[in-house]
Write a structure and sequence with these properties.
The protein is α/β, with parallel strands linked by helices and about 180 residues long. It has one domain: 3-Layer(aba) Sandwich (Rossmann fold), CATH 3.40.50. It is about 40% helix and about 15% strand. It has a 6-stranded parallel sheet, sandwiched between helices. Helix 1 links the parallel strand 1 and strand 2. The mean pLDDT is about 95. The chain binds flavin mononucleotide (FMN). The site of flavin mononucleotide (FMN) has 15 residues, from helix 2 and helix 4.
Amino acid sequence: MKIIVGITGASGSIIGIKLLENLKGHEVSLILSENAKKIIVYETSYKEEDIRNLVSKIYSNKEMDVDIASGTTKFDALIIAPCSMSTLSKIACGIADNLITRVAAVALKEGRKVILVPRETPLSSIVLRNMYELAKLGVVILPPIPAFYLKPKNLEDVVNYIVGKILDTLGIGHRLYESYPGQ
Ligand SMILES: Cc1cc2nc3c(=O)[nH]c(=O)nc-3n(C[C@H](O)[C@H](O)[C@H](O)COP(=O)(O)O)c2cc1C
């Protein structure tokens, strides 16, 4: 698959990074927002170079004159993980003022798969309304909520579950979590 991943400045950048690690074998382009770069340093031990090695191509969020900013460049899916409320709300309103929001606008107009992993709590009615508008357009809203019934032992289990759910949505097989065995 040809996949574009956006990592924004919401907390939980490890989700986007682990997603990249699990998309090996696919053609993955990455866009990092300016705030995402800061959060990655703050929350993880990954260096930008480590992340660069996980993808085919990396873009700055400031770039607009690049191939993926155009609807003529085909891709199978856009995943923004984690997605800030700012980026989510811009996409819902059709604002395309950076590469991540531009690629999202392109994906929506071209009817391509878009998965957003919004991280915030609690959620304001503004954000809930924007999520609803996006869901009506076919966007998958996939918040990083743990499956408590799978009894995660640590944060890694939680992250694996969320990444697994993203891969499920893409139709990509994985062994990141065991399904509920029933009582
Ligand atoms: C430590 C830290 C954690 C943050 N966590 C979140 C978050 O979980 N969700 C969110 O919407 N914004 C969060 N923000 C704020 C965003 O980084 C900010 O709104 C930024 O403008 C988002 O821009 P971007 O979507 O282009 O990265 C956080 C900021 C900092 C410094």
